[in-house]
Amino acid sequence: MEFxxxxxxxxxxxxxxxxxRLGFEARAETGxxxxxxxxxxxxxxxxxxACADRVMWVVAEAEILTFDALFELVxxxxxxxxxxxxxxxxxxxxxxxxxxxxxxxxQKIVKKAIVERLKQRYETDWFPExxxxxxxxxxxxxxxxxxxxxxxxxxxxxxxxxxxxGEAPLRETLAAAMLRLSGWDMKRPLHDPCCGSGTLxxxxxxxxxxxxxGLSRLFSMESWPTSASQAFHNLREEARALHQxxxxxxISGSDINPEALDLSRKHLRQAGxxxxxxxxxxxxxxxxxxxxxxxxxxxxxxxxxxxxxxxxDQLAAGFGDLMSRHxxxxxxxxxxxxxxxxxMKRKAKSRRRLYNGRLECEIMMF
Length: 366
Hints:
- The chain has helices spanning about 10-20, 40-50, 65-75, 105-120, 170-180, 200-210, 230-240, 260-270, 310-325, 340-345; strands at about 1-5, 25-30, 30-35, 55-65, 90-95, 135-140, 145-150, 190, 250-255, 280, 295-300, 330-335, 350-355, 360-365.
- The protein is an alpha/beta fold.
- The protein is elongated.
């Protein structure tokens, strides 16, 4: 079967590489990466992908210019082979640069077409939708309609333990991508001097300990009636056995906000990393680590985000001083502050443009 792992703009290549490491043949394209597998393979992708948003089961794809053509495409899908009679099948939609741009109309047509197809199989006019949820997504981009079923449920950035994200959060998928782009070798001590609620620290510990990103959560496909349930269970148990925290490099974080540190500690406890990752109060301007060649990683305030450009510039200068106090150190930082390099008085050795939500940012490596 065909699947599509959706991803934020700029992360498609990373998701492709993740899929290849998991044993799939994958092709990156705008919005994600496409691959073929069976249901246990889709579950494995949900369990392990760190940078993807969702794993979508593609059931139809074609050029569509009219509502009638959309209806016929959806009605041609053998929904009776997928949906039990009591299945709930909510329909979401997205339209971009296409002849059909009314999302609500497309959703209604897709829903009606599924019902018309199921009527023929189940010989009823009423579907209670009280059973397992099969979220249907209708995406029309440049007149190509993709009809898919969401196997993930909640977006994959929901790792299953974080209860509150705090101010100006960094999504887990972007934090995971940042770590993979940063050049951290998982051997050098890693420290986040603006750790906030701890997202980068958690993702660093997951990466270094080989913890599957979805180990602590469920996916919508697990509620479906399927003969693959035992395979799902086995894959989760295999992932649990691979997770080892005994030989991690030092991973730590600091912040001047005591409420943020309380959140960090709470999330570390919920993720089973209490005592594995340390966080403590410290001011970046005085921070000095007792570590050889530390690797700093951070998502500092941008100015645009928290409304204080002057403070953001001052903080960028503080990162320059931090590097001077730690000879041989490296830094990976995500920022939308155009003055960051100038205020830091250093030139990034490499950079990558990404988006934090809708805000265009750069990951800079020093």
